[in-house]
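This section describes the prediction task in plain terms. A model, or a person checking by hand, is given the sequence of a single protein chain and must write out its three-dimensional structure as a string of tokens. No templates, partner chains or ligands are provided. The sample shown here is typical of the held-out split.
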Amino acid sequence: MKKTRIHFLQHVPYEGLGAINYWIKENRLQLTQTRFFNNDPLPDPENFDMLIIMGGPMSVNDENAYPWLGEEKAFIRKSIEHHKSVLGICLGAQLISSALGAKVYPHSEKEIGWFPVENVDPPNLKTPFLLDNKHLTVFHWHGETFDLPKDSQLLYRSQMCKNQGFLLKTNILGLQFHFEATPDSVQEMAQHGNEEIAAGGNYVQTINEITTVNSYFNSSHQILYRILDYLAKKSK
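The expected answer:
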């Protein structure tokens, strides 16, 4: 693998890279970051090859409360125009959709916990990270959903939420759920989101259900690393 330069966008301290850090360290890649909660500046897209956009509790539509959201969406569009590989996770996927003109809006249900998704496996789309993974149980934490960006292809869906992941061109990937989740990151999200958990719902698990699961991390990380390898090869 070439030495891909990674830049990531972080919205809150408790939603970091998770298992993506393992892949970056294993491949000894250069990593830079913009932490919006710390007023970090955004870089010139020529200074990185791959952009990773993390999650957060805010909505992409909360620009009055978080003025940097408008700047972030413009930066995402600019990165796409510069042909960078882009991975958006949860809020990150919604930001990609919004930046490209698709709607992001509240879903009828919140989805918090470990729930299955199905690989749609679009015809004529060669994505090695989809192989042998038709049904997966993955970690979710979202109350909003998004329309697919124009010309993108649906990759994942679930019974509760039809748009769980998409691929645009060959190098822009949005995931509504968290392949990168680790036991520590799940604990942190549960601690900061305990009010949402306490409110309950048809697709909201208890803190105990969320934090005692250990059987799905390995399978999630295996697919995550395939995705990252794939996007690194597509990066410029």
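For orientation: The chain has a mean pLDDT of 94.
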